[in-house]
Amino acid sequence: MKLFLIFGVINGFLAVALGAFGAHGLEGRITEKAIGTWEKAVTYQMFHTMALLVTGLLLARFQGEGLLTTGGWMFMAGIVLFSGSLYTYALTSIKTFAMITPIGGVAFLIGWVMVGIAVMRNV
Description:
Blueprint: H1 2-25, H2 32-61, H3 66-92, H4 95-98, H5 101-122
């Protein structure tokens, strides 16, 4: 539980910092398309930061629920793979990084399914 709350807090901080950096530090340095890619990475990171926080809170209530734990780890993997690959792609334009993004998207989907099943079981 505590770990996912800490992950949520760290990712919330990073999403705000990276959003500000993208808006102010990258303006004029990368293309508008790359800025859009950067913004998508920030948006998905922040959405899944909230998912990590909710997962941590649910684990406080439903201790030992393995599906919640799996869901939290999938959200973390999704942030690293989805948002991380988009940040890197926006900065480098190396298409290999963009090809990693769907793996992160699948991790997000798995996370939502795991948390959804856990909620249906326990609420």
